[in-house]
């Protein structure tokens, strides 16, 4: 499966209409999952879709819709450009901790905390093997409590890593919206029936 961003860039409402046409056309051709779409009454400014790789290959690039602007019938512009970009899959990190993904190390804690802390291996280090993140707790006298605290800290670190990854994805999406190439379309459609002409 392939994920595509369908973007109207900063185009006017007619470009949103073209995005809506593309989504309907894709849905007729193949099974389609719309991951995200921001729409107004004319259609979505952009959409993230997941579809088979074979169908995705037919859509990548710049799509041209040639049509007299239905919202401005006296306007001379008839060419509306849409960008279709392949999106890399995010490495999704599951914040639920699986013991098979963890290495738990116990060690003797130094510093304040009483005699019990200094004579037993009460501190705990938890390493999340897939990401390399690690969390340590040595604050509690009980090894059990330190383990629970280290798990809690590691879950928070994984959640933050996921937020950072999503922020990077948003930045990439915004850049793609700005980089819509107008010209040399890979597919051309015409009229309100969105009929393919080349």
The gist of it:
Helices cover 33% and strands 30% of the residues. The protein has 198 residues and is of the alpha+beta class. The two termini are 26 Å apart.
Account of the 3D structure:
- With 198 residues, the protein is of the alpha+beta class.
- 33% of the residues lie in helices and 30% in strands.
- It contains four helices and ten strands.
- The longest helix is centred in the C-terminal third of the chain and has 36 residues, at 143-178.
- The chain is elongated.
Descriptors:
alpha+beta, about 200 residues, Double Stranded RNA Binding Domain, Alpha-Beta Plaits, 4 helices
Class per helix and strand makeup: alpha+beta
What are the secondary-structure elements, in order, as H or E?
EHEEHEEEHEEHEE
User: Could you list the spans in which at least 5 consecutive residues all have pLDDT below 50?
Assistant: 90-94
Shape call = elongated
Give the biggest beta sheet. 7 strands, mixed
Q: Tell me the Rg in angstroms.
A: 26 Å
Overall CATH class of the largest domain: Alpha Beta
**Tally of extended strands?**
10
* CATH topology category name of the largest domain: Alpha-Beta Plaits
